[in-house]
Design brief:
The structure holds two protein chains of two kinds. In chain A, 80% of the residues lie in helices and 0% in strands. By secondary structure, chain A is mainly alpha-helical. The chains are: A mainly alpha, B alpha+beta.
């Protein structure tokens, strides 16, 4: 009788423990998703800012049509990219064309004096920074979540309910790796 | 990071309980001395009442009291876009749910603080001096430090410990003063009681006096030592968020070199600031009563972080500089840290503004926040008119032209289009109720003012880019045109 009671209590404890692990896994997965949506918001913001930027720059930069077209092309590629892996590659390319563009801007003092352009510049710098910081936060969350999935005992629960590891958001280019900075000024 | 927050909460509770015991025993002894030997319960009750009232007040409106007493003014994105962006970047890095409110303190001192009882309801305040002297990277470091105070729940801890300390000081002060003034009367009372009771009373009284003298000192030591540890911790988390230790280090350098005291700070609110706002020049040595660790050491630690920016790197740098291992964070917090590289600075190389120019820019910003009107005279002089200036016109001090605050030209919307608008959404309906909108043509690129047709003076910031501005008194829209 006592043995049965002890076993029952043990069983209840185990079930509660498993439920707790399951809940914490769900919470972590939601945090990862939330972190990703933060990146997504900023990427969208960048897509929105770029047409304005090109519109403002067009009047001043008659001889740089190629640079401007490259940005537009990279933007539409990045917008069309699916999945985290492809997306990080396309975003890296877009970031590179943008930093090239801001290098070229150095030769156009009139453009640099334009109030509208300055506002866009601050917005775009900040968006670039936000993407970088959001990426860091996303990768932190993902590491934490992946660790939980791989480590005992939560890996049992993870396997039972088919939790999958999340992909890191890494930017390929060497330049981009340290800090996706846009060199404005 | 989450481990760290949990540990922090646990420590806050320990402090909380420790100081609570201190408070209760003080209350008991004072009660026992004041009203017969068994008045101790009443004393405890009294002490708890003082404490509960103070904590309720501080919990419900502590942040607004602090912001009000430091004369901080809330600013919107339009007024100071860079500060706003920097805070938003750190908010994202810290994965905070809600955007903190942003305040500017109109003082030349270089300092900043964070407040708010929870991460959902927080605020960051920086001084105007800080804005005018720091570049973007340094500002980011300071904001990251304040953001760490918010996510580590330091704000609540500092507020509560401060209140606890405040009530202990208050009680012992009241007690000691009353002993001083009424010693004659109370001694007569003891004589009338029985011999044994009188002796117990005297012992009680001695204990109460000793405790009343010691408790505030002990509580202060407790409070300040924890506040120092939290500063190191906030530096470590700031670097982790910002990934650029040099930014915070050079910001701290500038802060320590500036010799303005913050007039609106006091000893209890001092731990909330990034650097001690009350330092006396030359008195930089660490002692038991300092609220902040020596700023030179903080800078040295940050400067010697070359490998990476996670907590382990900070602790290594800490023990290199201090020559001892630190206990500022628990080992469990370090378990899941991975290498995080230092990012590159994003200083605007070309934007070499002189300090004078930048100070002037921030000065204009503060005047705009304080509702000054900006007028541009035809001779090119920009005149700043304080909000309590009552006359209709002002004469230019350089060319003596008479100037009035320009009135937005009113264009009445024709009846037909007005009726059409009313059919639309609520927002536009409100616009249509005004039934007219003004037009203002910008004269220059800086701050400018004009008055809405209701008489309210509106400012336009240099970066104003939208087509309309809305009056916050009457809700009327005014179109802004540039030549």
């Amino acid at each position: 009788m006592i043995v049965i009671a002890v076993l029952l209590v043990l069983l209840v404890l185990v079930v509660f423990n498993l439920a707790g692990m399951y809940n914490s896994l769900i919470r972590l997965r939601n945090q990862v998703k939330n972190a990703w949506s933060q990146i997504d918001v900023q990427l969208k913001r960048r897509y929105d800012l770029i047409p304005n930027l090109i519109e403002t720059a067009k009047g001043y930069m008659q001889h740089e049509r190629e640079t401007l077209e490259n940005i537009t092309k990279a933007r539409s590629q990045a917008m069309g990219a699916q999945g985290i892996g492809e997306k990080s590659k396309a975003e890296g390319a877009l970031g590179e064309t943008l930093s090239k563009f801001f290098l070229v801007v150095e030769n156009y003092p009139d453009l640099k004096a334009n109030q509208n352009f300055l506002v866009l510049q601050e917005e775009l710098t900040s968006t670039e920074n936000k993407i970088a910081f959001a990426r860091q936060a996303y990768n932190d969350q993902t590491l934490f979540f992946n660790n939980k999935i791989q480590m005992f005992p939560s890996n049992i629960v993870a396997q039972m309910f088919n939790f999958k590891e999340e992909e890191f958001f890494v930017i390929e280019e060497k330049k981009e790796r340290e800090a996706p900075k846009v060199n404005f000024s | 990071m989450w481990e760290l927050i949990r540990e922090n909460k646990r420590k806050s509770w320990i402090i909380f309980i420790g100081m609570g015991i201190c408070l209760i025993s003080l209350g008991y002894l004072i009660g026992a001395v004041w009203f017969s030997p068994d008045g101790g319960i009443g004393g405890i009750f009294f002490a708890l009442c003082v404490w509960v009232v103070l904590s309720l007040v501080s919990y419900c409106s502590g942040d607004s009291i602090l912001l009000f007493s430091s004369k901080a003014k809330e600013v919107s994105r339009d007024v100071c876009p860079q500060l706003f962006n920097v805070v938003e970047e750190m908010k994202i890095a810290a994965s905070l749910e809600a955007m903190p409110k942003i305040y500017i303190i109109d003082e030349p001192a270089l300092n900043a603080f964070a407040t708010g009882r929870s991460p959902q309801k927080s605020a960051i305040a920086v001084t105007a001096g800080l804005l005018s002297r720091l570049n973007r990277d340094e500002l980011q470091g300071v904001v990251a430090h304040e953001m760490s105070h918010i996510i580590n729940r330091d704000v609540l801890y500092v507020t509560f410990a401060g209140i606890m300390l405040g009530s202990i000081v208050l009680l012992s002060e009241v007690f000691l003063r009353s002993m001083w003034y009424s010693s004659g009367r109370s001694s007569r009372r003891y004589r009338s009681s029985s011999q044994g009771g009188g002796q117990a009373q005297v012992i009680m009284m001695l204990a109460a006096i000793v405790l009343a003298v010691l408790a505030p000192i002990l509580a202060r030591l407790f409070y300040f030592s924890l506040s120092r540890r939290r500063e190191y911790l906030a530096d470590a988390s700031a670097v982790r968020l910002d990934r650029y230790p040099q930014g915070l280090a050079s910001a701290l350098e500038k802060i320590s070199n500036a010799n303005f005291d913050l007039t609106s700070a006091n000893k209890i609110t001092a731990p909330m600031y990034i650097a001690n706002p009350l330092k006396k020049r030359g008195l930089e040595k660490l002692n038991l009563f300092s609220t902040h660790p020596p700023i030179k050491e903080r800078i040295k630690i940050l400067r010697s972080m070359a490998q990476g920016v996670n907590y382990i790197n900070y602790l290594e740098a800490f023990s290199r500089v201090k020559g001892k291992t630190s206990d500022i964070m628990p080992p469990s917090a370090l378990e899941d840290s991975k290498d995080v590289p230092i990012r590159k600075p994003f200083v605007e190389q070309d934007k070499k503004q002189s300090i004078k120019e930048k100070t002037r820019e921030i000065g204009d910003l503060m005047r705009a926040v304080n509702n000054y009107a900006f007028l541009i005279c035809l001779c090119g002089l920009r005149i700043k008119v304080p909000p309590d200036f009552k006359k209709q016109a002002i004469s230019c001090p350089r060319c003596a032209r008479k100037l009035e605050i320009p009135l937005a030209k009113v264009e009445t919307v024709t009846a037909a289009s007005g009726a059409a608008i009313i059919q639309k959404s609520d927002k536009e309906k409100r616009f249509a109720q005004g039934a007219e909108s003004g037009v203002y043509v910008r004269k220059g690129k800086g701050w400018e003012s004009f008055s809405c047709s209701c008489g309210k003076v509106l400012q336009i910031s240099p970066i104003f880019a939208a087509r309309y501005t809305t009056c916050d008194r009457c809700g009327r829209k005014t179109e802004i045109k540039t030549d």
